[in-house]
């Protein structure tokens, strides 16, 4: 277990399953964030591509977690950045209406038929056989395959879960026999690298807080940062990880350090 030292400058928080569950705020989330702001910078990230940064910003403030839109990083927004940096365009999109609008508003061209040159896959609650068929046609033409993430599921509150973006990616991978060329979201470090650049902090000055060892905390470790796992069943076996039962326990720990 590491200690919160003077080297730490930024706390980066996962959202789904950490600060909220569906429309329910995690107990102590607002108090923890407000307390951290007295000494540290704070950022928020999510692998969920179905909502824009503006929509996530509105939700957080509605739940009483005060923040600015510039502090929010979604896999959807990060995917837009990656596509533009990589020169990938003329895309067939599997994803939500919000995600599609985010792509189009950035100047990217969406093609809704077999003539698309590349494929981008995000969380799509209306995923179906026809979308797999079109995605397959793009990949058979050797188009690029970009995935927002490969999350198997995500929490929606009251101990309920729904299939994540990984379910869409998996169906297409199975059909086309091709894995994504690039996965933007965690545990890849792309989002965290963008946060570090925006806040002008080094990897060792960042603590990532999340509920998933395989996703949130692995991203931190991949970036050589520290991680705090929020889990009632977690076991601390790594000197770069702290395990806390809940956010209130984390708040008490930070206040003591």
Helical content stands at 25-40%
Look at the helices and sheets and give the structural class. alpha/beta
SSE arrangement, N to C: EEEHEHEHEHEHEEEHEHEHEEH
The description of the largest β-sheet is: 6 strands, parallel
CATH architectural arrangement of the largest domain: 3-Layer(aba) Sandwich
| Termini gap | 13 Å
Q: Mean pLDDT across all residues, rounded?
A: 95
* CATH H-level homologous superfamily name of the largest domain: HAD superfamily/HAD-like
By CATH, the topology of the largest domain is Rossmann fold
Radius of gyration: 18 Å
CATH class of the largest domain: Alpha Beta
Q: What general outline do the C-alpha atoms trace? A: elongated
H/I helix tally:
9
- Approximately what portion of the residues adopt beta-strand conformation? 15-25%
**How many discrete domains?**
2
The parts where pLDDT drops under 50 for at least 5 residues are: none
How many distinct beta strands? 14
Output the strand order for the largest sheet.
5-4-1-12-13-14
Description:
The radius of gyration is 18 Å and the shape is elongated. The protein has helices at 29-36, 53-62, 75-86, 97-105, 129-140, 165-176, 190-199, 213-222, 247-256; strands spanning 10-14, 20-21, 24-25, 41-46, 72-74, 91-94, 118-121, 145-147, 153-157, 160-163, 182-183, 206-210, 226-230, 241-244. Helix 1 packs parallel to helix 9 and helix 5 (129-140) packs across helix 6. The protein has nine helices and 14 strands. The strands form four sheets. It has a six-stranded parallel β-sheet with strand order 5-4-1-12-13-14, sandwiched between helices. The model has no long low-confidence stretch (mean pLDDT 95). The chain is of the alpha/beta class and 257 residues long. It folds into two domains: 10-47 and 186-256, Rossmann fold; 87-183, Rossmann fold, CATH 3.40.50.1000.
């Amino acid at each position: 277990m590491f200690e919160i030292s003077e080297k730490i400058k930024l706390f980066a928080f996962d959202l789904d399953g950490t600060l909220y569950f569906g429309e329910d705020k995690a107990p102590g989330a607002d108090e923890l964030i407000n307390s951290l702001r007295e000494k540290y910078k704070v950022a928020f990230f999510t692998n969920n591509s179905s909502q824009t940064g503006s929509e996530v910003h509105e939700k957080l403030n509605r739940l009483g977690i005060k923040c600015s839109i510039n502090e929010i990083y979604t896999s959807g927004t990060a995917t837009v950045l990656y596509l533009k940096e990589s020169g990938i365009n003329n895309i067939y999109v599997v994803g939500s209406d919000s995600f599609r609008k985010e792509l189009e508003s950035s100047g990217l061209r969406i093609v809704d038929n077999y003539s698309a040159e590349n494929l981008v896959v995000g969380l799509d609650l209306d995923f179906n056989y026809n979308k797999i068929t079109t995605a397959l046609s793009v990949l058979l033409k050797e188009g690029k395959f970009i995935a927002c993430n490969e999350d198997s599921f995500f929490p929606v509150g009251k101990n309920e879960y729904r299939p994540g973006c990984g379910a869409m990616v998996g169906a297409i991978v199975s059909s086309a026999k091709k894995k994504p060329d690039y996965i933007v979201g965690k545990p890849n470090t792309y989002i965290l690298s963008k946060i570090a650049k925006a806040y002008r902090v080094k990897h060792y000055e960042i603590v990532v807080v999340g509920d998933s060892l395989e996703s949130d905390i692995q991203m931190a470790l991949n970036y050589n940062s520290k991680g705090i796992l929020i889990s009632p069943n977690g076991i601390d076996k790594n000197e770069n990880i702290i395990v806390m039962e809940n956010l209130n326990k984390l708040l008490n720990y930070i206040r003591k350090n």
